[in-house]
């Protein structure tokens, strides 16, 4: 009951308000064009007719929610998943690059974090750069990486995954450094009294202590990785993927398609973050953690 | 303290030198004169040996610093103009010089200076050496292997390009950063802040907004860029709109969380003073929320730049950083793209640094800054 009152009702109310506002904006934004059309056709539609018309233009400035939903439903469930018209296909193309990039990025981030925790020289020289690199718009590199790899004959999944990799390894590296350093002095002293070797301390104390940090940063990383894959599909006139769908939609002003692609991208994002969350909870439970 | 003994980096550097000596000459054509070659070998060998025999750590580090960078400088400047002619011994020497630099950093981090300025200097020098070596290795590998500059230009070419196209870069920065980013950043952070105050005032709104805001952090919001370009046209307004949307949610979520940061005791104290909602807000809760708000401002400084640049991929007037990147990529002027990225990186760091400085001034009371 508390959950219903504290979470579900407010969120649904807000979302419902959002949808209402969306319809209203659709009227405001599509209205001028519709009025123009009606004037040319010499029609004088009633107010309700006018409303309905603004919500059913083929290329509206702002498509109404049901138009987006219809298009999304059609391109997801009513066409074959492997045809180029299917959103499932495009989502899959983006998702595969995201997953490959995310996996590599996570592994790379963990390796860097382990190095940073164990070598002072690496810590002092690399850590400032990792932090600085967070402040620069790395995504701007994406088009160049794609084009340069295309020039030497590598296209498709790999260059996209590369961009995803390097968007996702920063959060993991930073989070893991924090996690591996999270054991308190007391715990480290205890390991010391057990005469534990550095490797034992690492595997039995530092790694378990870092797991919550790892999953928290993996959530950030997987979202970044998806953004990387989508942006990587923009510049090359790519033929497949959510980014390509956005770009072609913007070229041909097919606004409904853009919105449907956005919905697909958001669903993929939510799915990925949820998956990482579930994996984190399973791992935590397997390690004997209890919910706080 | 005895520090005589063989460090593995210096030892390996000597071994690499010996291997390089066997595999002479350095380059297929006459890139290196006999004198230069001898000088490079002498620098590396002498410095490696000296570093193992000198008593003071600081002195050893200084010797290594001079040796590593002198040798690297000779190698890189020698190969310039003779791209692709390098042979195995060139790369062996580069690796040896790099090992010496590594040794130098390892020596430097063991120094524990007494006074604070020296400590800060040391903290700056170590990452700088790393950054310089990144550029040196990049330069040496690109020139040594003769990678076509169309694919990957060396840093020196990029620097020349930056120096030669300052007016174009300035125009792009003006369009993208001073118009799109700043306007969007101020509007996005402002509305996010206002929404957070509203959400704080009305608990129903907070319960509804917070999950939505948290979820929005995971969404690829950047995808609204084509829509914004359609709505607001090609000029900077559409980019500012993307920036507003991207910066809104981090600000909202962080401010709402920050407003709950003040303790019960403090709030009770405010109540005993009979202070109203707004008084409590301005005198207690907002100052307490400042670390969170600045966290959002910092996150947003990066997001804003990314948003503006990526939005420009979807169409702009003929100026702007994103526009320049996408068109110069199309014309295979990769050095111009790198120049633009370097400028974007500097702009991003300066933006972030400015926010961080203001943070230090505003949240001077916070343990993370006071305890520094």
UniProtKB/TrEMBL annotation, chain A:
Residue ranges of every copy of the ABC transmembrane type-1 domain listed in the record: 91-280
Signal peptide start and end residues: none
Keyword Transcription included in the entry's annotation: no
Keywords attached to this entry: Cell membrane, Membrane, Transmembrane, Transmembrane helix, Transport
Primary localisation category: membrane
Source organism superkingdom: Bacteria
BP term (GO), one: transmembrane transport
Entry GO CC: plasma membrane
Topology in the lipid bilayer: Multi-pass membrane protein
Pfam families per UniProt: BPD_transp_1
Parts of the chain that traverse the membrane: 92-122, 134-155, 161-180, 220-244, 256-280
Compartments it resides in: Cell membrane
Keyword Disulfide bond: no
SUPFAM superfamilies named among the record's database cross-references: MetI-like (SSF161098)
PROSITE patterns found in the cross-reference section: ABC_TM1 (PS50928)
Family: Belongs to the binding-protein-dependent transport system permease family.
Protein name per Swiss-Prot or TrEMBL: ABC transporter permease
Organism: Borborobacter arsenicus
TrEMBL record, chain B:
Occurrences of domain ABC transmembrane type-1 (ranges): 194-362
Location of the protein in the cell: Cell membrane
Transmembrane segments: 30-50, 57-76, 88-109, 121-141, 177-197, 209-234, 240-259, 303-325, 337-358
Signal peptide (UniProt feature, chain positions): 1-23
Keyword Nucleotide-binding: no
Protein topology in the membrane: Multi-pass membrane protein
Predominant localisation class: membrane
Domain of life: Bacteria
An example Gene Ontology CC term for this record: plasma membrane
Keyword Aminoacyl-tRNA synthetase: no
Sorted UniProt keywords: Cell membrane, Membrane, Signal, Transmembrane, Transmembrane helix, Transport
Pfam families, A to Z: BPD_transp_1 (PF00528)
BP terms from Gene Ontology: transmembrane transport
InterPro entries: MetI-like, MetI-like_sf
Protein name: ABC transporter permease
Organism: Borborobacter arsenicus
């Amino acid at each position: 009951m508390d959950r219903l009152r504290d979470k579900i009702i407010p969120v649904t109310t807000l979302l419902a308000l959002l949808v209402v506002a969306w319809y209203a904006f659709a009227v405001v934004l599509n209205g001028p064009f519709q009025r123009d059309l009606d004037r040319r056709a010499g029609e004088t539609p009633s107010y309700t007719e006018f409303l309905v018309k603004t919500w059913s233009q083929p290329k509206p400035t702002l498509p109404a929610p049901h138009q987006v939903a219809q298009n999304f439903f059609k391109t997801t469930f009513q066409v074959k998943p492997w045809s180029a018209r299917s959103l499932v296909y495009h989502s899959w193309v983006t998702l595969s690059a995201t997953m490959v990039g995310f996996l590599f990025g996570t592994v790379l981030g963990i390796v860097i974090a382990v190095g940073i925790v164990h070598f002072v020289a690496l810590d002092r020289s690399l850590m400032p750069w990792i932090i600085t690199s967070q402040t620069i718009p790395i995504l701007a590199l994406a088009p160049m990486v794609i084009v340069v790899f295309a020039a030497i004959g590598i296209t498709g999944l790999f260059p996209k995954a590369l961009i995803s990799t390097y968007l996702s390894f920063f959060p993991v590296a930073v989070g893991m450094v924090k996690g591996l350093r999270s054991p308190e002095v007391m715990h480290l002293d205890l390991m010391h009294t057990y005469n534990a070797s550095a490797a034992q301390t690492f595997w039995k104390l530092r790694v378990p202590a870092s797991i919550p940090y790892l999953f928290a940063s993996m959530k950030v990383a997987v979202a970044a990785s998806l953004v990387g894959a989508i942006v990587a599909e923009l510049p090359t006139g790519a033929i497949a993927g959510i980014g390509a769908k956005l770009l072609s939609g913007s070229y041909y002003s097919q606004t409904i398609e853009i919105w449907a692609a956005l919905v697909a991208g958001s669903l993929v994002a939510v799915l990925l973050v949820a998956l990482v969350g579930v994996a984190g909870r399973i791992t935590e439970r397997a390690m004997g953690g209890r919910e706080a | 303290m005895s520090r005589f003994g063989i460090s593995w980096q210096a030892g390996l550097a000597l071994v690499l030198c010996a291997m390089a000596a066997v595999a002479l000459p350095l380059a297929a054509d006459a890139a290196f004169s006999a004198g230069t070659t001898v000088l490079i070998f002498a620098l590396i060998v002498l410095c490696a040996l000296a570093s193992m025999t000198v008593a003071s750590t600081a002195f050893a580090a200084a010797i290594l610093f001079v040796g590593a960078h002198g040798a690297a400088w000779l190698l890189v400047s020698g190969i310039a103009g003779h791209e692709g002619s390098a042979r195995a011994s060139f790369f062996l020497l580069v690796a040896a010089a790099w090992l010496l630099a590594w040794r130098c950093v390892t020596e430097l981090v063991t120094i524990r200076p007494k006074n604070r300025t020296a400590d800060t200097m040391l903290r700056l020098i170590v990452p700088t050496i790393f950054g310089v070596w990144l550029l040196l290795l990049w330069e040496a590998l690109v020139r040594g292997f003769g990678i076509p500059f169309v694919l990957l230009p060396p840093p020196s070419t990029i620097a020349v390009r930056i120096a030669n196209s300052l007016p174009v870069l300035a125009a792009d920065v003006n369009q993208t950063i001073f118009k799109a980013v700043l306007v969007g950043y101020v509007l996005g952070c402002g509305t996010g802040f206002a929404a957070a105050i509203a959400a704080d005032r009305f608990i129903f709104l907070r319960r509804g907004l917070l999950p939505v805001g948290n979820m929005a952090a995971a969404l690829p919001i950047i995808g609204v860029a084509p829509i914004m370009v359609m709505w607001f046209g090609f000029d900077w307004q559409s980019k500012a709109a993307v920036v507003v949307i991207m910066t809104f949610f981090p600000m909202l979520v962080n401010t709402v969380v920050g407003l709950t940061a003040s303790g019960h005791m403090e709030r009770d104290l405010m109540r005993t003073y009979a202070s109203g909602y707004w008084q409590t807000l301005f005198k207690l809760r907002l100052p307490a929320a400042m670390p969170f708000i600045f966290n959002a401002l910092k996150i947003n400084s990066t997001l804003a730049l990314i948003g503006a640049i990526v939005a420009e991929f979807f169409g702009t007037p003929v100026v702007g950083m994103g526009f320049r990147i996408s068109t110069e990529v199309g014309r295979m002027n990769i050095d111009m793209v790198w120049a633009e990225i370097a400028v974007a990186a500097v702009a991003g760091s300066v933006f972030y640094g400015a926010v961080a400085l203001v943070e230090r001034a505003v949240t001077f009371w916070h343990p993370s800054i006071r305890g520094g």
